[in-house]
Amino acid sequence: xxxxxxxxxxxxxxxxxxxxxxxxxxxxxxxxxxxxxxxxxxxxxxxxxxxxxxxxxxxxxxxxxxxxxxxxxxxxxxxxxxxxxxxxxxxxxxxxxxxxxxxxxxxxxxxxxxxxxxxxxxxxxxxxxxxxxxxxxxxxxxxxxxxxxxxxxxxxxxxxxxxxxxxxxxxxxxxxxxxxxxxxxxxxxxxxxxxxxxxxxxxxxxxxxxxxxxxxxxxxxxxxxxxxxxxxxxxxxxxxxxxxxxxxxxxxxxxxxxxxxxxxxxxxxxxxxxxxxxxxxxxxxxxxxxxxxxxxxxxxxxxxxxxxxxxxxxxxxxxxxxxxxxxxxxxxxxxxxxxxxxxxxxxxxxxxxxxxxxxxxxxxxxxxxxxxxxxxxxxxxxxxxxxxxxxxxxxxxxxxxxxxxxxxxxxxxxxxxxxxxxxxxxxxxxxxxxxxxxxxxxxxxxx
Length: 447
Prior knowledge:
With 447 residues, the protein is of the alpha+beta class. Helix content is 30%, strand content 21%. The strands form 5 sheets. Strands 6-19-13-7-12-11-10 form a 7-stranded mixed sheet. The two termini are 51 Å apart. The model is unreliable at 62-88 and 130-144 (pLDDT under 50).
């Protein structure tokens, strides 16, 4: 129920209460009246919360797309939370669209032309947000580059997260500085203790127990730079609507793709630490005599058994697209026959994904080639922590300069996304009465 519907319902209940004569009510009628009065009070609280959320949403969503309809499309869902957190500012948008600002930048970059003062306002705002290198002069492209409005960069970040099959599922956290430090639980076994050392006892009356405490470890993560560069000719920039939508989409896809590749495969040196390189990765052995480049039912059954029960609700399967043919052939043997265990996308599946053990199967070339370790991964991506620079620009710095490719009549576009990531846990976990380690990230041994 949206805000307008809630207001209509409130007015309907209020009319019912006003039109009801409370005199000479029966006990049943009085109970019904009191119930409707309670419904009225609860609906009023919901409306107040929705109106507050609506106000905050409108403050965040100041930017429009090339057709000036982005804000209107979001107003149909007034309580939808934003993906990024805005930094409070008195700054007001200077340009209606990305394409409009790009035309002003191109005009200002031509010797002898006057610089639009709105570019200076944007440059000042970006520098005040500590998104620019020191020493650059305001509004002078030859001193470095013109900064684009933060909202345009924020739109790119939001699009990348919303469309990313992996990026949209990780635990994304904004940070204000150049990185983050925290204390985490140092736990590799829950067989006898939890949180690295806490023990609970059944104690006799007047008895005592041994004191216990959690074991903690210091962790830190610094923001890294993910950078993309593109060029556009002067002629192309004449079409402002096209350039606005094209570069919003192209940079979003580029950021999403590189970020997701790093989440799965990153080395941790100057890039996020990927799932396949993390020490918390659980690797399930292949079956004895298993044919090369195959995935069989026993493989996925044992992978599923290594996922802690509490993590299965959010788990997904990441698979190399070539592995889908292997999944389609899998069946659970029963007597001399068998039943399929893989449910292709259709009426019984959710979100357009095929299902395996009731969880979505996401094909992605971020996974390794069929037969290699990492061609299939079972994971709870909520246990992968990704940090990005805080701000309503989504941690992105978006610059344009005509000077890099001046001789070719091309403008250079550069976007820098400040981010980093790593799994939350540093080790696998051992449970009571089992020698098999478990974790939130599980893959299959090379075959």
